Amino acid sequence: MGYSLEQNTFIVMSYYRNGVLNEYGDWVYSVDACKDEYLVKYPVVIEEESLKTHIRRIVARFNDTGSVCKGKPTGRPEVSEDVVDDLRTRMEQSPKKSLSKLSLQSGVPYSTCQKVVKKKLHMHPYKISLVQELQPADFPRRVQYCHWFQANLDDNRILDLSFFSDEAWFHLSGYVNSQNFRIWSTENPHAFEETPLHAMKVGVWLAVSRRRFIGPIFFQDTINAARYREQILDVFVNQLLPEELESGYFQQDGATAHTTRENLRYLEEFYDDRIISLRANPEWPPRSPDLTPLDFSVFGWMKDSIYKNRIHTLEELMDKITRFCNENLNEEVLQDIFENKKRRVALCLRENGQHFQHLL
């Protein structure tokens, strides 16, 4: 039978209450006296020997722990320090190693590896960030640009008038991974997903300053020099304000269509020497999306937002992009983006033109 906490407490109290002092001055306790008192208090049918065994067990537990309650189970034995040191060495030598592989190589159970790595070595899994590859020759060009930016554009009044531009492709349909996509059914439904031979997509060009944006300008054909000038730059410059044309700068990346002599001369008609571009002075450093406001902020945010729900037509896609810009790219947000830009320039200088995203 089971004994309640009240009954076990009574047993201990009765056992010591019925103790007597013998002729040698020692206390003598009687299991029989405790048993008899228990049966008076709790008159239940019970085998006396079983009760006496329980009395001895509870008294021994009380003497060992000071409690009549069961202690916590001891569980598995502690992992030895040799095992911990071995796992530490393996993880330090190969920090990308999975716990499954660690278990296989060390011969230590997976659950033990997990416990040691997290609780004893205090290691945690961190995602790897994908960044633009940089060449050694890029470092001084990035440093030169950042010094120029701090000397000429680290001024909110100038940034209010200057535009940073870029373009990105937005695809209509998502990618279906047949290895990971599953349909649970009692029978094979022979399901398939239709995909077009050429993915439907739309290009988006956008320019942002610290106080407003121009665009989005959409295109579906590959941009060459003539299309860039006629379909994008013409539309852009026609929306500029007099003060922006007089004092602002214009930035573009180093795409071939952007940097032809014809297009640079076209931009010089409006901006004179205030063009930030490859083949211009100041030069825009190649492979530097981490310094471009549209790349490090707007386009990623835009895609996360518009692809939350499935989009069925290119018209719907373009409408969502336009509404995103109108609803989100207000002056306060743009000011925050350019404060981020300033911080990135400072960190790029601190790292001598190398990657700095881990410091953000």
What does this entry look like structurally?
- The protein has helices at residues 5-17, 31-41, 48-65, 81-93, 99-106, 110-120, 138-152, 156-161, 225-237, 242-247, 261-271, 293-306, 314-328, 331-350, and strands at 20-21, 27-28, 163-171, 201-208, 213-219, 250-251, 275-276.
- It is an alpha/beta fold.
- It folds into three domains: 5-65, no CATH class; 81-120; 138-180 and 195-359, Ribonuclease H-like superfamily/Ribonuclease H (Nucleotidyltransferase, domain 5), CATH 3.30.420.
- It is 48% helix and 9% strand.
- It has a five-stranded mixed sheet, sandwiched between helices. A two-stranded antiparallel sheet has the order 1-2.
- α11 (261-271) links the parallel β6 and β7 (275-276).
- GO terms for molecular function: nucleic acid binding.
Describe the structure concisely.
The protein contains 14 helices and seven strands. It is an alpha/beta fold and 360 residues long. It folds into three domains: 5-65, no CATH class; 81-120; 138-180 and 195-359, 2-Layer Sandwich (Nucleotidyltransferase, domain 5).
State the CATH class of the largest domain.
Alpha Beta
CATH architecture designation of the largest domain: 2-Layer Sandwich
Q: Output the CATH topology of the largest domain.
A: Nucleotidyltransferase, domain 5
What integer value in Å does the Rg equal?
38 Å
Supply the helix-strand structural class: alpha/beta
Assign the CATH superfamily of the largest domain: Ribonuclease H-like superfamily/Ribonuclease H
* Strands, total number: 7
Q: Which sequence of SSEs, written as H and E, runs from N to C?
A: HEEHHHHHHHEEEHHEHEHHH
Protein name: Transposable element Tc3 transposase
Organism: Zophobas morio
InterPro entries: RNaseH_sf
GO molecular function: nucleic acid binding
